[in-house]
Design a protein that fits this description.
It comes from Luteitalea pratensis. 32% of the residues lie in helices and 29% in strands. The chain has five helices and seven strands. A hairpin with a 7-residue loop joins β2 (66-73) and β3. α3 packs across α5 (144-160). It starts with a helix and ends with a helix.
């Protein structure tokens, strides 16, 4: 058998036996109209991350994104806090970066890239996180510390429990 055929066979066998190491091109295209972020990232994960009690969850989907709004009662206050998680295609990470006018800062230790900024429109802090070849997610909160807690919790959950 010629050496080139042996190399092809060995390469194919290796790729088949190591599915986690396949390229980003092997990722299935996600249908964002059917993706349920509230199911992919359960509210208890968000409530636990910020130290409160989950009181409400509301999801929204579109053809290019899916989001979930989590309402959490914080200890010692009657005012609930809202946290939002969006999931969109990985290409959105750079595309959205270009449309942000506000100053943004790199966030280390999250995914394959992350940045934070404060949205002038709603005053919320937004962290975008990239998982190359898979997804971009956004975590929003009323403080940079809370946004980071939510982003850390979402990343830990999604990296451990991939979305199908």
């Amino acid at each position: 058998m010629p050496a080139s055929i042996v190399v092809l066979v060995v390469t194919a066998l290796f790729a088949a036996s190591h599915p986690a190491e396949r390229s980003a091109a092997a990722q299935p295209r996600r249908d964002y109209a059917k993706l349920d972020v509230c199911e992919a990232v359960p509210g208890e994960i968000i409530a636990h991350a910020v130290g409160g009690k989950l009181t409400a969850v509301r999801g929204t989907t579109d053809k290019s994104f899916s989001r979930c709004r989590y309402t959490v009662a914080m200890p010692g206050t009657d005012t609930p806090s809202g946290y939002v998680v969006w999931i969109s295609p990985p290409d959105d990470f750079e595309d959205l970066k270009q449309s942000i006018e506000e100053p943004r800062a790199t966030v280390t230790g999250l995914g394959d890239g992350a940045y934070i900024y404060r949205d002038k429109g709603d005053g919320r802090f937004k962290i975008y996180v990239l998982k190359k070849g898979d997804l971009t997610f956004e975590a929003t909160a009323d403080s940079p510390e809370s946004a980071r807690k939510v982003a850390d919790a979402v990343a830990a959950h999604l990296w451990k429990t991939p979305i199908r």
